[in-house]
């Protein structure tokens, strides 16, 4: 799998393909692995992505410091706000491979009504407005 194939999965485990910034109609973000001018402001200054580049790892799970304090903080935030765990996604990528995780995430965030992309932040389809119910723990 090339980096281009992996562009929808951020080093931290967030699926960029379903991120609100990626789904924007005006100036959509190119994802964490995109060119700087294509990224959302928050993505351009992301400490986790910068750390992954400096340590020359594709995913944080490949790093000897995994899981680091910034990644744990991101995970707590995503669990609380969105019911998602980038940390668990990163562990799964390490165990099953990035291709498996990307396929799983693409299925997870595809709208069952129209085939559009459901935003992971508000759980709403970017095309038809379908709302994905929260997952049960």
Structural write-up:
This protein has six helices and no strands. It is mainly α and 137 residues long. The model has no long low-confidence stretch (mean pLDDT 87).
List keywords for this structure.
137 residues, DUF3795 domain-containing protein, globular
Task: Write a short abstract of this structure.
By secondary structure, the protein is mainly α.
Percent of residues in beta strands?
Answer: under 5%
Alpha carbon gyration radius:
14 Å
What's the end-to-end separation, in Å? 32 Å
Q: What would you call the quaternary organization?
A: single chain
The DSSP helix count reads 6
Class of secondary structure makeup: mainly alpha
Report helical residue fraction: 25-40%
Uncertain spans, ≥5 residues at pLDDT below 50? none
> How many distinct domains?
1
Question: Per the principal axes of the C-alpha atoms, what is the gross shape?
Answer: globular
Topology:
Elements: H1 20-23, H2 41-44, H3 47-55, H4 69-82, H5 86-96, H6 98-108
Helix pairs in contact: 5-6
Protein name: DUF3795 domain-containing protein
Organism: Zongyangia hominis
Pfam families: DUF3795
């Amino acid at each position: 799998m090339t980096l281009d194939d992996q562009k929808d999965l951020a080093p931290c485990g967030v699926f960029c393909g379903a991120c609100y910034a990626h789904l924007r109609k005006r100036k959509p973000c190119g994802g964490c692995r995109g060119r700087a001018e294509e990224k959302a402001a928050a993505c351009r200054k992301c400490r986790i992505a910068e750390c992954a580049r400096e340590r020359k790892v594709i995913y944080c799970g490949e790093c000897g410091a995994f899981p680091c304090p910034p990644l744990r903080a991101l995970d707590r935030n995503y669990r609380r706000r969105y019911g998602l765990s980038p940390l668990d996604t990163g562990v799964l990528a390490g165990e099953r491979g990035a291709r498996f995780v990307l396929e799983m995430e693409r299925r997870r965030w595809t709208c069952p009504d129209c085939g559009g992309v459901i935003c992971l932040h508000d759980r709403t389809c970017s095309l038809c407005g379908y709302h994905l119910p929260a997952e049960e723990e």
